[in-house]
C-alpha cells in the first residue's frame, strides 16, 4: 500500500540494502515513495500552482481587493518563475463558432461546383474533406451536393459539372457548407471577381 508508511519504510529498507550491495547512490525514502505510487513531480507541482491560482481568485472575489483574472493565465517556471494574465478575445469570424457569413471569393460564376468544392478542400484556410453544399435559391432551400447520403449524392452528382450560374447562384448569394472538420454549418457569401462574366441562365 503506497499510502501506508510501514509498507513504504519496509520497501525503502530493502532498496537501501540492495543499493549498498551494488554501490548505488541516491536511494531516498522520497524516491522510493515516488516509484511505488507513480508520483510524477511535474503533475504534483502543476496541481499546486493551479490550486494556488484558484485560491487567489476566490480571495479576490470574496474581498474585492483587486480585479480577477480575465479568462487566461500563463505560468512559466522554466527559468525562474514568471506569470501573466490577459483576456483572450473571441474572433468574430471564427470558422468554428461564429455564425457571421464569410466572404468566399471565386474567379467567376462560370466555375463548376466541383471546382468550388476543390477550392474549399485545398485552400489552407478551410482544409475541408468532403463538404456538403446547400443554398437558398429563389426563396427555396436547395441541396447542391451532399456526399454523405448515398441516395442524395446520386441525385446531386450531376450538379458537380454545372457552373454556379447554371445552378442559380450569383454574386452575393449565400451558400451553407457542412463538413466534418467544423462543428457547425458555415455560411458563405459568394463574391465573383469578374462581374462582367456573370450571366444568369434562364431556365
TrEMBL record:
Superkingdom, taxonomy of origin: Eukaryota
Domain E2 binding, chain residue ranges per copy: 104-193
Record flagged with keyword Nucleotide-binding: yes
Pathway: Protein modification
InterPro entries on file: E2-binding (IPR014929), Ub_act_enz_dom_a_sf (IPR023318), Ubiquitin-activating_enz (IPR035985)
SUPFAM superfamilies, per the entry: Activating enzymes of the ubiquitin-like proteins
Keywords assigned: ATP-binding, Nucleotide-binding, Ubl conjugation pathway
One example of a Gene Ontology biological process annotation: protein neddylation
Keyword match Protease: no
One Pfam family hit: E2_bind
Gene Ontology molecular function: ATP binding; NEDD8 activating enzyme activity
Name the UniProt record assigns to this protein: E2 binding domain-containing protein
Species, as recorded: Homalodisca liturata
Amino acid at each position: 500500500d503506497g499510502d501506508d508508511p510501514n509498507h513504504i519504510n519496509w520497501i525503502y529498507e530493502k532498496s537501501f540494502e540492495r543499493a549498498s550491495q551494488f554501490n548505488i547512490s541516491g536511494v531516498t525514502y522520497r524516491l522510493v515513495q515516488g516509484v511505488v505510487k507513480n508520483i510524477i513531480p511535474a503533475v504534483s507541482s502543476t496541481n499546486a500552482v493551479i490550486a494556488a491560482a484558484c485560491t487567489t481568485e476566490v480571495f479576490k472575489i470574496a474581498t474585492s481587493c483587486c480585479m480577477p483574472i480575465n479568462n487566461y493565465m500563463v505560468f512559466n517556471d522554466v527559468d525562474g518563475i514568471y506569470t501573466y494574465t490577459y483576456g483572450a478575445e473571441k474572433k468574430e469570424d471564427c470558422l468554428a463558432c461564429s455564425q457571421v457569413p464569410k466572404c468566399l471569393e471565386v474567379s467567376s460564376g462560370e466555375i463548376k461546383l466541383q471546382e468550388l468544392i476543390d477550392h474549399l478542400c485545398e485552400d489552407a484556410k478551410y482544409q475541408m474533406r468532403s463538404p456538403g453544399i446547400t443554398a437558398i435559391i429563389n426563396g427555396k432551400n436547395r441541396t447542391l451536393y451532399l456526399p454523405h447520403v448515398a441516395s442524395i449524392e446520386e441525385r446531386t452528382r450531376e450538379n458537380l459539372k454545372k457552373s454556379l450560374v447554371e445552378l442559380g447562384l450569383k454574386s452575393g448569394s449565400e451558400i451553407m457548407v457542412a463538413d466534418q472538420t467544423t462543428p457547425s454549418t458555415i455560411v458563405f457569401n459568394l463574391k465573383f471577381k469578374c462581374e462582367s462574366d456573370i450571366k444568369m441562365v434562364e431556365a
